Amino acid sequence: MKKNNQDKLLVFALGGVGEIGKNMYVIQYNNDIVVVDAGLKFPEEDMLGIDIVIPDINYLVDNLDKVRGIVITHGHEDHIGGLPYVLKQLNVPVYGTKLTLGLIEGKLKEAGILGDTKRILINADSEIQLGTIRTTFFRTNHSIPDSVGVCLETPEGNVVHTGDFKFDHTPVNDQFADLQRIAEIGKRGVLVLLSDSTNAERPGYTPSESNVGVQLEDIFRKSAQRVVVATFASNVHRIQQIINASIATNRKIAVVGRSMVNVVNIASELGYLHIPEGMIIEPEEVNKMAADRVVILCTGSQGEPMSALTRMARSTHRKVDILPGDTVIIAATPIPGNERYVGRTVDELFRLGAHVIYGPGSASGVHVSGHGSQEELKLMLNLVKPKYFIPVHGEYRMLRQHATLAEEIGIEQENIFVIDNGDTVEFQNGVARKGNKIQAGNVLIDGLGVGDVGNIVLRDRKLLSQDGILVVVVTLSKQDGTILSGPDIISRGFVYVRESEGLLDEANKIVSTTLQKLMNDKVNEWASLKTNVKDALGRFLYEQTRRRPMILPIIMEV
Amino acid sequence: MKKNNQDKLLVFALGGVGEIGKNMYVIQYNNDIVVVDAGLKFPEEDMLGIDIVIPDINYLVDNLDKVRGIVITHGHEDHIGGLPYVLKQLNVPVYGTKLTLGLIEGKLKEAGILGDTKRILINADSEIQLGTIRTTFFRTNHSIPDSVGVCLETPEGNVVHTGDFKFDHTPVNDQFADLQRIAEIGKRGVLVLLSDSTNAERPGYTPSESNVGVQLEDIFRKSAQRVVVATFASNVHRIQQIINASIATNRKIAVVGRSMVNVVNIASELGYLHIPEGMIIEPEEVNKMAADRVVILCTGSQGEPMSALTRMARSTHRKVDILPGDTVIIAATPIPGNERYVGRTVDELFRLGAHVIYGPGSASGVHVSGHGSQEELKLMLNLVKPKYFIPVHGEYRMLRQHATLAEEIGIEQENIFVIDNGDTVEFQNGVARKGNKIQAGNVLIDGLGVGDVGNIVLRDRKLLSQDGILVVVVTLSKQDGTILSGPDIISRGFVYVRESEGLLDEANKIVSTTLQKLMNDKVNEWASLKTNVKDALGRFLYEQTRRRPMILPIIMEV
Fold this sequence. Notes:
six-stranded mixed sheet; alpha/beta; Ubiquitin-like (UB roll); homodimer; zinc (chains A, B); globular; RNase_J_2 (chains A, B); EC 3.1.-.- (chains A, B)
């Protein structure tokens, strides 16, 4: 392809830097934009009442005519969860492998846009042309099958995006990463590598998923009663190993939890899960079988309040009880922020008399990460041998650690770009530099509202959550300068009213006195009355309680 | 001492089981009650707006005439933080070692009850008589100096409470645990051991605090610029090692952060910290000195929003800036729940160009735990050789793991009591059994309020935090059956009003229509009007937004 001096390649993140998730990287060559992934993230703890967070895609909407498609590397929520929202603003084709598209289709159906969305099935051998950008793929290992990395060939040079990956030399179902193809891509020359930084802080190698299978079979065999295993629903390889261990130990499997049932169905239909006839039993049948012939596969490995395992632990599950002597395996590591939820679930399970196998300390190998550790990240860097490097997917400290690894394998420090969402890296005539900043950020989703909850609303929720609210209602006669009715004080989330009558009576008096004085002084502008009531009452309550509830004066005048 | 068949020893927890902290165990022999520790805990994430949590001590208040004193094992918040509240209800003598009392006195002074509280200084060799209970002590190792375990000798048998402990064979300042005395106590015969379970999930031995010193000196020496070290203010041994490493590497120390300054002062005055003349410089002097001659010792190892390190990381500290190339050491492990705060601080420090040494992965030994791991817990069990065992201090799963360790060293399963707060273990005529449950629980402190925030208030705060509140104000004429003014809708924390005018206009109409219809139907009981407005508006808003704000109808009638 011809190329002139004005031609330019841009690489930037709309999501993927910062708290886990919400991955979205963008490659633009002149008038062709390819988006890699469209994930969501779960709200940070100060985003009160928010359900999920997606990337701000205003840049893409403004350049809609240039967007050639969204390429999805794998079917995890933090890579596909934003699609239902993004596609409503940006109806462009979505490219994904079979399982990935299967999972996406479920989401689009729920959102009512399945019919409107062009979905294009790819496999690791596909070659697609996205405008001037020829796009190929390579198989990777990750904690979900059918994950790929992407090679985007532009006239300015080749861009490689790894997606999430590890190198598993003994993968489940022989799903090897394609080392040869990655090496070949590297040999042909790579301008810039974007590589997964999730485990950049972790030395060594991430163990193989197969290790988990050995361990599970051993535990299944030694357990005299039922075995309950909680893991991520999307970890189809893990589920396959749980099935294999069940076969080997002559146990049947009950599948419990909506998303687990859902993924088991999709993955078996699409051929990613091999379940012999008669292996699966209904949860209702569990109690009819000998305890040592049963495995219960369920959701809840993160201690999520409404999940199957949490309900079992609290003895509120409709179909399954945990009995003393049962073995419960939590085959997952808590995502940061979930440690206490998981801890509480483990506590409850112990109280019920279960043997619980959990956590990094005593987990004895029932979980391995889906992300490569430092040695694997260096292997990827050495296979791809890029000129420039952009660490992706991770908090800033992980990106920095990944940058350090890249320096260690010999990439020049000035050829490494640690970027924030919205930072662009510009490649022109073989040279890279930081480009202009583009709009990027969080769009908060609360119920049906997309972006309608902003800082003011969040600040109010924060205030309300700390000390509650007092509504003060009073009716004044402007002419007479007297209080006709009230003040009535209604409080929510401040104090337990029945036990604080004295305090609220005093508060009432403060309001009356304040208003009466103002009216006597002929101050009767509405705003001034309100401000004075707020101040006087706020001061009094702070003195009495050291709390600062929100105060909402409602002053009616007749 | 004579003893008859009715005599009885009770052991129970008022705090110490469940989320970290709030430790308080009670030993009662007939009419003599001894309390061990009076800690606080920090609120769980669903205790919105709560500052701290202390144990419910109603049992002690009801038996005030029997309480002989509160024995404090060491000066950590989770062992002394409840004292200002407890002593207001229970004015009994407090026993503690020198540093422990020093820290307690600061608290009591702040609470204005220092003069009213009888404080009795003990050391590891003290023997005190608390009614019929002869009490002796033994030195332990922990992450604060001057920590002790307690031996309570009752006619029914001896009770040993370890406090928090580890076994450090190379302790800082030669503060060895008194292995000989513990062994001697064991040899004389122990009825029941209460032992710290914090690290019962962790295999092996906890490394010595001295290891940290070696590491710190190495880092100090290799750093070409300033070194910032954040650690727990109360970890006086750690601070001593930071001082020693500074001396060895010819650096001066600036102390930053209120609690760090406070502890450094108290600990030096009392002789627990040896600081050569001229070592300490003012924070203001830092910028005048060569960068490789300075150490900044500060608070903020947990990423606490208002702490010194967090301010430095955000470039909002008044006196100290982090410069590119500075080394920052976070010499602590995040307490569960604080991981994200610490992560964000590390991110910010990296953004400023600092080298950051943090976290278990890459910490390279800049922190060790103050609690013994499994081998140390077994060593304690074997030294004390108790007949009965009660694991203390920890979440339920940790207590269970500790119980398993006790079984492993040969204690009969039926002689091990894993108890919840309020469960009693009764010892009578040499036999132990579970006794009656007594009142125990959490008392929530919010500002000056002690226990005035209960479930209803917390539920309201939760609701308010999720979707905010709508106050609907309307004035009706009962006689005419018409709406005189309003409805006016005031919202807080629901939607950003300026961008949702259409929604709120609609909501207004719903309220009007609902009220008008009711009045036309001659339904005009106040309660019924309110309920109907709430229901209709709630339904409408949920349909439109999938949110459920709190709705507060204020209906005035004239």
